[in-house]
Amino acid sequence: MCVVKPFELAESFVEQHGRKIPLPELKLLFATALAELGIRYFACCQHVDPLNPRNSALVFQNYPLEWLRYYSAGGRYRSDPVFRFADERMVPFHWNDPEFRASLSPAQREFLLEAAGHGIVNGYTVPIRPPGAQTASCSVIPGSANNIAPATGQAVFVMASFMFDAMLRAKSECSGVRSIVLSERERQCLELAAQGKDDWTIGLLLRISERTAHNHIERAKRRLGVCTRVQVIVHALSEGQISFGDVIRMEPRREPERELRNSAN
Description:
The protein is of the alpha+beta class and 265 residues long. It has helices spanning 6-18, 23-36, 65-73, 81-87, 98-102, 106-116, 150-175, 184-194, 199-206, 210-224, 229-238, 244-249, 254-264, and strands at residues 39-46, 59-61, 93-94, 124-128, 136-142. It contains 13 helices and five strands.
């Protein structure tokens, strides 16, 4: 029996994203990879009405149609507790996390019970901050009663980030939005950050100060209109401004970085 390895699925998906295959094909790969991970339902979308998205909002999901009609007819996206919690978060969360459960009002608890009646239960949500756009998230629902395993959650986080980037890229191409070209130093800092280097190590390797390295990455984030390092790295990779091949070939190695720190002391 072949055991599905979440990291390998995520790596394969990211590789296809890097090849810039057509969005419909990438969506099919995304859905197929999630199914192989034991995911039954998913909803990767901006926090809008999924059946009546406005202004070309990003919506990609396979929730049961009966639930979507009920959800849309009542305008429930406005008070959806998963959406509202994701609005305030930067890291993924399980729907049974104590912090999430404690944030629920009685009405929101009832909402989740209604969703569970349609098989939308034991979810795991990755908050997304699309550059210059309404907040979004990617929620996945396991096909069994079990919660999403850590390795599966990490794979979903990676794939969701790249899936949203592809959708944003397709939307930008349709609207004729021009790409921002990063400076050479910004690209160098991002490439090292993508390899897992911190600001101190980036500064040492590039012979600049830690603060200067940090400022280059922050400037790249502002120029590309994103909020997090993960997003700016995904953006730069998808546009070919930093090399995915170089990032993969030069994985972070702890021992040399420890030696660098020791030599600097």
